[in-house]
């Protein structure tokens, strides 16, 4: 079987196991790639964005400012895939209203207030499912959401919430902020970290 067919088959299995519709994922991925690959968003030669003095100082400090090589991982493609996965594993206003037992207007209000993590997709709000447990937002997450910079990209938000931190330990192991909150950890500890982003 060709390598691309194997990859598509593996993707189909992963999406099916997660309960994510393949067509929704494909549409979200296409939009994310289109957005992230916009000419103004792509900089293949980072040195072109800096002054000569800044380039030299960064190079002396050990930073590689060479243009990206084709065989290197594509950070734009990786970010687009992560963004598409977040969108594909999200719910609309109606589903969240039903989950929380509130009106659609209240859900939209909480998205605007930033007490629910929400992503604007076209003219609608999308709410990543991972923020909910037992029919409500994870305990303490609204306070953390308010502490996050308002302009932080959803991929950065979910990386922050899901990547283990040595500052948060559960059972003597580094824990992600979401796992920390789920275990009963203090929201203020996570909110303090969020304010530093």
Summing up helix and strand content along with how strands pair, one would put the structural category as: mainly alpha
Tally of helical runs: 10
Mean pLDDT: 85
Please tell me what the overall shape is.
Answer: globular
What's the count of strands?
7
Q: How many structural domains are formed by the residues?
A: 3
Poorly predicted runs = none
Radius of gyration: 19 Å
Spell out the helices and strands N to C. Answer: HHHHEHHEEEEHHEEHH
Could you estimate the helical fraction of the residues in percent? 40-55%
Describe this structure as you would to a colleague:
It is a single chain. The chain is mainly α and 197 residues long. The protein folds into three domains: 3-67 and 74-86, no CATH class; 90-129; 138-197, no CATH class. The chain is 52% helix and 12% strand. It has helices spanning 3-18, 22-36, 52-60, 75-88, 93-100, 104-113, 141-147, 154-162, 177-182, 187-195, and strands at 90-91, 119-121, 124-128, 132-133, 136-137, 165-170, 173-175. The strands form three sheets. It has a three-stranded antiparallel sheet. Strands 4-5 form a two-stranded antiparallel sheet. Strands 6-7 form a two-stranded antiparallel sheet. Strand 4 (132-133) and strand 5 (136-137) form a beta hairpin. Helix 2 (22-36) crosses helix 4, helix 5 packs across helix 6 and helix 7 (141-147) runs parallel beside helix 10 (187-195). The longest helix has 16 residues, at 3-18. It is globular and about 55 Å long. The model has no long low-confidence stretch (mean pLDDT 85).
What is the gist of this entry?
The protein is mostly helical. The chain has helices spanning 3-18, 22-36, 52-60, 75-88, 93-100, 104-113, 141-147, 154-162, 177-182, 187-195, and strands at residues 90-91, 119-121, 124-128, 132-133, 136-137, 165-170, 173-175.
